[in-house]
Amino acid sequence: MKVVKISLLVLAGFVALATAAVYSGIFNFAADDPHWGMTQRLIELARERSIATHAADISVPGNLADEKLIASGAGEFSEMCTDCHLAPGMKDTEMRTGLYPKPPNLSEHGAHPTPEQQFWIIKHGLKMTGMPAWGLTHDDERIWSMVAFLQKLPGLSPAAYHELIEAGEGGHHHEGMDPEERDETGSEEADDHAHHHEHAAVGDEHGSRESNLPLAAKAAAARVDDFQKLLASGDTNGAATLLEPAVLIYESGEVERSRAEYASHHLKADAAFLKGADVRVLSRDGNAIGDVGWIATETEIKTKGSKPLELITTETMVLSRGPQGWHVAHIHWSSRPRTE
Q: In what order do the strands lie in the sheet with 310-322?
């Protein structure tokens, strides 16, 4: 009985000390203050065992060596993962530098668990690491494509990496929005918001106009076209991935100062406005010097629906080039009614 009382007193004392430590705020949750060595080892062991246990029953598909699947996964990786996990030839990013624990550099050998564990990590994410659960927004096929790419990533040269990115670029974006979501952004909404959304999707009609661009600007112009085609097809998620997080957008006298702000305001309405519109490119200019480019496009656009419009639109995009290719850093849209 005496031993039991002593044990209960020790346990009560431990609980009291733990409670006091929690409420005092003495434990430092700052990301720039590392765990004690023993704490870190315990967390790492718990994480590794959890991943191994939960991934044990996952069946790995037999097509991970398929080149198209690998290329598709490369496109996913370049847009979703490089800020944290880097890419061949890529230096530390500001985000990765500030994360604790620091994400592994997946372009290095020895940084990879098994394919089934990779799938589980990508799909479900990891608590207290900054790793999101991509399964909430991506289906299993897209996640397996990333796993397929990760099998090939270690040891890739920067040039080989970029070749894969080009081969898979944009392939996953054309799935578009859910049909019900498309219905919610139909022609009536487009007509109602037409005066706010002045730009036009660039179609395949430029022809010889593209030949007037300097060679250095052609890749930037292609990225502009990718953005506009995705927007016109209703793939708002895909279009958003081609924008820099801090993109600055001027439209109809309004300003949106980030990708997140644009996505929560005008993005869907812009896509709805362009749905089914007839577009003809009138002129295009641009250039690129180093990692900065600009593309200016004048377009005729004719909308349909209960309030048809004929507009002349002007669009200027400034782009920046990083390891994952060109992304849009600034957009200026304006338009006027076609009078002639």
A: 254-256, 243-251, 325-337, 310-322, 292-302, 278-289
